[in-house]
Amino acid sequence: MQNRFLGTADTVYRADPAQSRLVGRRLAKGCVTLLVAFPMVDYTLRQFVHPLGSIWDKVVLAILALVALNRVMRGHRPQVFAWSKYAGWYITYLIALLFMGLGSPGTSFDGFRADMYDMLFGLVLPFVVEPEDAPYFLYVATALAMLIGLDGVLQYVLAVPIPPGWVDVGEHVRTRVFSVLKSPNELGAYMEMMAPLIIGMGFAEKDRVRKMIFLAGGFFCLVALLLTYTRGAWLGLGVGVVLVALAFERRLLAVVVVLGVIGFFLPPIHHRVMDLFSQVYYIKSSQGGRLVRWQQAFDQLAGSPLFGAGLGRYGGAVASDKGLSIYSDNYYAKVLGESGLVGLVLFFALHVRIVVEVVQKVVRRAVGAHRPIALGGLIGVIALLVHNVVENVFEYPANCLNYFLMVGLLLLWSRTFDGQEENHG
Predict the structure, then answer these.
(1) Which ranges in 248-369 belong to alpha helices (H)?
(2) Which residue, 89, 220, 340, 386, is the most exposed by fewest CB within 10 angstroms?
(3) Where are the domains of the chain?
(4) The whole model's pTM is what?
């Protein structure tokens, strides 16, 4: 797909002219296309081809690893991401914890896999994706997100039934939308990352029809985000917009004001936000909610503050499935509880490095039509990291995978900047 602001194969990044980098290109492109369409592909396969639905992403990762290995053996040496080194340190530490927990090998291995699996897709991207192909994948990802956002809005119109546990006591909402991600919290996290990128593409686009499609799609994604009634996603997007606005584009603060006014005057949203400041919410949170769950993370450190309780033993899906712990409702608390202060520091270092690299490589180098796309991508990255403070967002495979894919694709896309002439028309 060709487009002036994202770049095309006609404006090629030529860092390595060797044919080795093109080995398996079509196969790799098909695999990465499936990954950026993960929510729809995974939902469809699990619904209609269940045995394949549980293993397809592992097969895709294996294929990409083989393509990457083949290219490397033929002499291809792409520039890896700067955050790869920090990921390497974190994974090395997880391997050490894995061996420390061999007394319960099943739990330790499941915890290890859960913590590092989705990261591998981001690490392999430079070896299997050419920078000039990154725009195509961004188009596929945003097109799918727009369809999911529209589906969420339709769910609200149709008042799709939801479990009673999705609504607080005394709260009255028509429904909480969830689309193919099967959870309003998971859909909210997905929308908070993709909506800013889609809107950025809309502002960057010169073609009037495509601009309207992107802006309308971004609008539906924002509406779907509101209709998930996921406060963590609202918080993440709000903080992301404010931080990016203060650092790079003050005009974005108007967006925060508009969204704040909308939220204040819409009763269901107003009630859901103000409920956070009620005495009832504080009591519930202290007895069995987020406050007591966060406190439990520190309790896990009592025996081993540096290394934690062990992989898979606290705060996440593995610990919950094995009856060892409830969800921490804070991914950083989960990391702290199971891998200690050392694990938390390494985890923070990894994601701080990701944000810094996106700022340095994408945002600061983006000019003209590239600028709103870069800012939208950064807002989505920050939003998801903030959302992790109040929820285990990285426990959702679709969102953790999407995070590393979008980071990787934005960084690869930025490598085309030097080879393009900016079109200001």
Answers:
(1) 253-265, 267-274, 279-288, 290-300, 317-321, 331-357
(2) 89
(3) 21-419
(4) 0.91
